[in-house]
Amino acid sequence: MRSALNIVAWASLAFVVRDLLRVIYMLIANHPIASPGLSAFGGAIFLSSLLASVDVFLLWFAILLVMGIRIADSLPVGKAAAGVAIVLILVLLAQAGLGTLSAKLGGMMITRPF
């Protein structure tokens, strides 16, 4: 378990680079990023929430994970890639579901009669 956590931690440096680039862009442009990732291609709330997390850095993260898991556990490339893909899809679906839920609940108003 320790080696798997080390692999995920080192592979997550791709997200550090992504966030640094986003901060630099926002400082230069003086406005936040309107649609991160591929979210501009999604029409529905769930689809745009799902595509907001999909970008080149997610692909880089997945490739690093496959390489690390393959080497650490002596797995064939197909099994390592399938395991990483299943986990990433589940995580992306959970993130999109929570994003959709927060978007739906964000517009609700509670009125009290008294």
Task: Describe, in plain words, how this protein is organized in 3D.
The protein is built from 5 helices and no strands. The protein has one domain. The chain has 114 residues and is mostly helical.
What are the SSEs and their pairings?
Elements lengths: L1 H10 L1 H17 L15 H7 L4 H18 L3 H30 L8
Order of helices and strands: HHHHH
Report the total helices.
5
Shape: globular
Percent helix among the residues?
Answer: over 70%
What integer value in Å does the Rg equal?
Answer: 18 Å
The strand count comes to 0
Mean pLDDT level: 88
Produce a short descriptive summary.
With 114 residues, this protein is mainly alpha-helical.
Keywords:
114 residues, 5 helices, 0% strand
